[in-house]
Amino acid sequence: MSLSIFFQLALLCCLLSLSSAKTGRPSHPKGLIFRVSKDPSTLQYTTQIKQRTPLVPVKLTIDLGGQFLWTDCEKGYTTSTYRPARCNSSPCSLAKSGNCMTECYSPARPGCTNNTCTLFPDNVIAPIATTGTLGSDVISVQSALDGTHVTISKFLFVCGSTSLLDKLSTGVTGMAGLGRTNVSMPSQFFNTFNLKRKFGVCLSPSNGAIFFGDFDSSTAPLTYTPLLINPISTASIVTEGEVSADYFIGVKSIRINQKPIPINTKLLSINATQGSGGTKLSTVHPYTVLETSIFKALVNAFVKELNVPKVRSVAPFGACFSSKSIGSVYTGPAVPTIDLVLQSKDVYWRIYGWNSMVEVSKDVMCLGFVDGGNPTTSIVIGGHQVEENLLKIDVESSRLGFSSLVYSKQICANYNFVAKSFGSLTQLLLPFPTALYVLVCSIFAYFITENGIFHPSPYSLLLSNCLLILFEVKSSELITTPLVTNPQSTAPLYAVGEPSKEFFINVKSIVIDGKPVEFNSSLLSFDKEDAGGTKISSITPFTYLETSIFKALVNDFMKAAALREMKTVASVAPFGACFSSQTIAKGQTGPVVPLIDLTLPDNQRWRFYGGNSMVPLNKEVMCLAFVDAGYKPNPKTSIAIGGYQLENFLIEFDIDSSKLGISTSLLLMNTTCSQSRL
């Protein structure tokens, strides 16, 4: 079969499949999702939406207690669809704005219009607050069901000034306010799409998410506590009679190793006259902040219970320890648990070592709580303590649900908010325009050899049951990395000076659970004999690695697995590390095991979850699905990403631009290659 005829038949199958799926597309999203990243330099959680006409990406810092969306309108804000909110109009009433800018003395632009109501955009990180004008513009956000983007034509937000961006992450041009107001982002999403008035927060040191609407929490059973209202605003600029937009909970006491610590419990209640005291949740504080007397009591009790020598403190922390003195368990460092006791002694938020300790160097870790002096709020639960916890903020019922994913051996990076399957891959891809993709999974497993002829592969039985087809999908949904040319052919027989016709990519490093694997990185580049590098292979059943890389990866994976209490068993050829299946939990993306990332240029990562890293051999045993290929120059290529690791990824080979596009694992989106309707 010729290449052109094969592609024509594949494209025809694709078009027939897409046309049959069009009738089932929902008119309204069942939920919306923010993909959230953590900036390692500022420790801020950021997301990206699209705004304006024409739409442009807008990077925002997440502020859980923020009153509304605000963006910098002074610098580069160009749009044809901005509409100011005129004084005394219904948008101004909805936002409870009591102020009006009657005249702006600069040239008219978004943020500088006459007769416009004003609010107070607040950057609590700097901290700084100014006056800004209320208006509306087009925004586009991602639907959680199928990955498409939905548009809101008149989304209310506040135009801020460039000075408000002080101390925000690079590239950020505003803050996404998710607080308890009528014009916060969740409130507008709920009202526009008639969503359940709930949203989920799952923050991570790498990739987390915020889901708007009701969602599935069956894999992480939630404990609930009431959300409290602070009658006095905790914003930087307060309007009389304005209640706080922050989310408060009723902490009654604190326990270390289930032993109460002595604190002034009056500090835990909200003062109805001044708005001081109490406990709130925050995404803009990197660590939990405590009033001084609470901080001292917690540190003293923790140090006493841990009973290991302290080392010199590292700011901003008050108690640090040698890492060698502290063991490890699957919930992180083996340290005393910290309980925030809520409405009764049996309802508490337990903080394990993963959330209580911060690794400040290879040798030192510190208790991740900060002395806040005499703050307005006595306890501010910060980002580090929130990470890898699933939170359900139920605005409708005014309650908070929470569950430690660390305890249940899950992570936010692969938590699936959508309970029901998307049904079919064609439905998932239906709305996306104009880029041809190759779906790497085939029941016939035809593959292109170097001379352009198709041959059946003996590996076909290991592939998912679906066809190699062409889809129309949206390029922005993939990470892209350059395809690299190996100047020397990798075929068994070749002419002098003939370049390789295989697809190579530039892998910079390998990371396991956020920690780089140490090996000779020169193996990842082509040497003088053009050996080395990383290629994509559908002939190789499992990813093979040059021996020194293989040993380093297996060694670090086993260390990370030990922290999760995965029990090792005798290795089964050709694999180097095998485990008891009974000690490994199951998640949406397969076995819940350490994550393996291939780091690419521009700090992008190709992430392999358990569904691609672990191969089950029988009911009792599963193995790390990477193979030792020997020492260089045999193999000539240091890493060959094999078929098992390619399954259930959508991969684009963009020959014109010499780029490779890679989706997130389709398992993460609750679908597989085999669910294509063909």
Total discrete domains: 3
CATH fold topology of the largest domain: Cathepsin D, subunit A, domain 1
Q: How much of the polypeptide forms β-strand, as a percent range?
A: 25-35%
User: Could you estimate the helical fraction of the residues in percent?
Assistant: 10-25%
Give the name of the CATH architecture of the largest domain.
Answer: Beta Barrel
Total beta-strand segments: 54
CATH superfamily of the largest domain: Acid Proteases
CATH class of the largest domain: Mainly Beta
Please state the average pLDDT score.
85
Low-confidence stretches: 1-26, 419-476
Number of separate helices: 10
From the spread of the alpha carbons, the general shape counts as globular
Secondary structure category: alpha+beta
Spatial separation of the terminal alpha carbons: 20 Å
Sketch the major β-sheet: 20 strands, mixed
Radius of gyration: 27 Å
